[in-house]
Amino acid sequence: MHAPIKPPDYEPLLADHGFDPIESDGLTYPLGEFEPKFGEYFELMPGIGWTRTPVPGPLGHINNWVLADRHADGSAGFAIADTGLFMPQVIEAWKHLFEEGALQGQGATKIIVTHYHPDHVGCAGWLAKRFKAPLHMNRTEWLLTRLLIADKRDGVPQEALDEWRFCGWDQNLIDQFAEKGWGRFARAVAELPIGHIRMEEGTRLKTGDHQWRVMIGNGHTPEHACLIDDSAKVMISGDQILPRITSNISTMLSEPTSDPLGEWLASIAHFRAALDKDLLILPAHGRPFLGAHQRLDTLALRHNEALDDLEQGLRESPKRVVDSFPYLFKRPITPDVIGMASGEAMATLRHLEFTGRAVHEMKDGVAWYSAI
Predict the structure, then answer these.
(1) Which overall architecture, per CATH, does domain 22-371 show?
(2) Taking the model in full, what pTM does it have?
(3) Any residues with CB less than 8 A from the CB of 11 and at least 6 apart, and which?
């Protein structure tokens, strides 16, 4: 697969890549500060290409992985792992690659999605339709996508209004969010195919010379799929392992009494035990890095420190969900992020309850948490 940008020859493990590695917080970034522009293709290693597409807001981008593959007739093709949002700028970036760039004259063999969040699944249906390529996805994540695309009701459901009050939002803020309506997910995600090919723990998937095995993580989403090639020592991690930011772990309306943080911590332990420490991690956000064990240890430590800090705060006085923000976040929580912040705070408080460290009582529809 010819690429317009290509480093000097190197071994598959990036031992000689032509860039100056950077070390930060115990992680090594073999490509230094390099990252491809939107719609630009970079050959990361034989059979694995890297491009990026834009994401509005602080994230700024998502990494999209282009995997060299073959069609049934033996002709060259490619698979795409994670697809970007279904919005004009992303479509433009993909079309450039298909019509003018590195992927010109080829077709997709597979569309692979790690989980149901719009920046990952958004263009999956559009790509699958364009290339008549099968969609590979975890069943639960596929069903959630289908469900949320179909949920285009006009008004905000009562359960959402009740949850915002549960968190301690004031009535003016609740009214403002209610005016924005519902069904925003469907505006960022193309319709999916009627069928999919299921990825679950242990599924094997081949692209070109790469043999991938699937590992499932929980907590960030119900059943997030990661792909590991043990021979090449590389992992497509989605949002399960990110180098600089911590994946959002939120209690969701679809499972209001669940313990996603407990599931996330269990997944960290599962991946820590199962992954080779020398894997090159290809994350959804940020640059490829080495140091999976170090990063997983840091993620677990940060959550456990937050749990301890919040429990101490609850010992000082009862608190609503919104009162817990200073214990969990370093930045002020403004209306543009209060939804995600509330979800994460609820998940942290919920885990304190699940582990017998806190309890809550209801007063006028608002939850007040106290330490036990």
Answers:
(1) 4-Layer Sandwich (3.60)
(2) 0.93
(3) none
